[in-house]
Task: structure prediction
Amino acid sequence: MFVTGHASAGKVALVAVGLACLPAADSFGFSPSVGGFSRTSHASLRSLGTSGLSRGRVGVLVGVRMMSEEEEPLVKKPKPTLDKVNFPADIKGMSIEQLKKLSDELRWEVIEAVSQTGGHLSSSLGVVELTVALHHVFDTPTDKLVWDVAHQAYPHKMLTGRRDRFPSLRQWGGLSGFTKRKESEYDCFGAGHSSTSISAALGMSVGKELTDQPVNNCIAIIGDGAITGGMAYEAINHAGYLHQRMIVILNENGQVSLPTGTPTAAGVQPVGALSGTTSRMLASRQFQDAREVAKRVSKLLPSDLQRIARKVDEFGRGFVSGEEGAVLFEELGFYYLGPIDGHDLDNLIPILEELRDSKSTKPVLLHVKTEKGYGYTPALKASDRMHGVGKFNVATGKQAAPAKPGPDTYTKTFANTLCELARVDPTVCGITAAMPGGTGMDHFGKFFPKRTFDVGIAEQHAVTFAAGMAVEGLKPFCAIYSTFLQRGYDQVVHDAVLQKLPVRFILDRAGLVGNDGPTHHGCFDLAYMGCLPGIVIMAPSDEIELMRMLRTAHEIDDMPSVVRYPRGSGYGAEGLQKVFGYDLPEGRVPTPAEVSSVPIGQGRIMRNADPSAKKKVAILSIGGRLVESLRAAKLIEGEDGLGEIGVTVADARFMKPLDTDLISDLASDHDAIITVEEGSIGGVGGQGLH
Result:
């Protein structure tokens, strides 16, 4: 726990308490000398109860998975070539045939490793040959490989000295699921969010030039999903303007959003004109005759790039210019090469060698086509290509199922409630930024495709697009992960808040998210949204409260509003009755149609302190930590057993506007108020102190 503030007035002390994840302590500004919870879900904490807690201490909770009788231990394939590789230097002298064997073994190593830990599978499988080729051709870490998002960097990590650490992938103290500078010198730039690689690689290239380094090879590897982000084009525009030497590898695999194929107002095709253009190009006669195009266009290039064009021609690939797809990049100052087969090492390696040895100072974009999940049949057959997976059976690809169906996730509850609101109100629309599956917008799109908008990885655009909708009387629900809304903050302030436009911001994955780590924790939204004027901010403690708050947001038509909720599942009827004391006459969770809105700015008392206690403490919780607050109160009073300390627990519900009457009452009747929230300094504790 960490203390964000302390103030006293008379006998009342107000202490703000938050929860931090220790591996991210240095990144978040939290003190690494204090403890914290490692949380993968609300359900896991609830199942552990208070066994991990002792009075006056905060324990680290660790989940343990037991093997069921039906499971068989993993039998790994032999990998004699990979076993000889510890670092990229070990593959420099390998022949093409040896590199092909290495790629096959590396692919199976990724499959086997992820089957035991879970993680991002298919993105890594799709770039195995490209990763091997890059490390074979370029002199890393002197030459810089910048992986955009970096969820596809598992093969890169295995080739750079971290293969033996993969059992710790995405775990406490283990390997990050993304590139991380502290983890290895081969991770030259950390990632997790998208569309940053070209900017970073361009900065590195300028740095090498200004410091007179003899070799300047900086390579950005970016997918067709990440390149839908506007920042990527800002960097491309700047690189072309500077005539700065760098290589951008555009990896096209056709999966722009997750999952691709969600029904939206634009149909089911992937987001982004680029993907559609290249798909049409591949089927056109002009591209099929690309060898002739290469011969004509190569005459316009410097001699070293003419050699590259001839090399492409030798292998029957295309060099495309003019009207067919490359015109955008060439107008921005890039040489465009491709598309080429990203799984064909015979082709990839000679082209990369030519680019490495080129003396040209102009940037080059190499367009490669790969298949997400390549080489693993279960992934190729899955609708999402097994993008993000839990533990799974290698033979079948079947993921481990929970012992029994649990309560709905908060994401599903949001999706169902939004569908109910849209059923009765034709102005309700849903917006997502390339995460329809993660936000529940894929479910909404099945019923209301014409009111579902996937903007691609473009959070800035999503926010202002929603604001424009609000101008015309629509009721946009802009569903974005808490951590990703940081990318659209200026638009939140400038386009929604200052104009008092009623955009409903739905922040999924608020708080700690578990395995994806610090780049994905939603720890800052209470602070960065709470400092804004004229906005309503709500945080439900359970699934019924979420349904009610979504109704509240639907009713707010004179300012923006926020509903933030955690990753994970609700409590179900039994938990709601047992933990929170709900009266559910039919013994079931009510449907979205059966709940009412929450009065704006109204908190609630969940537990009253023993009136005979000598000292009284109030815990003011907001959001998903209410259950822990109730358990802590019961534990304190139960351990004391002498009536010395009584604990009241209140649910703030709203950070803006705060229920000042509730806080005043707590202050007058208690010796101290402790605020509990899942976020950084500047949240409810800060609001209360001010």
The CA atoms of residues 312 and 318 lie 6 Å apart.
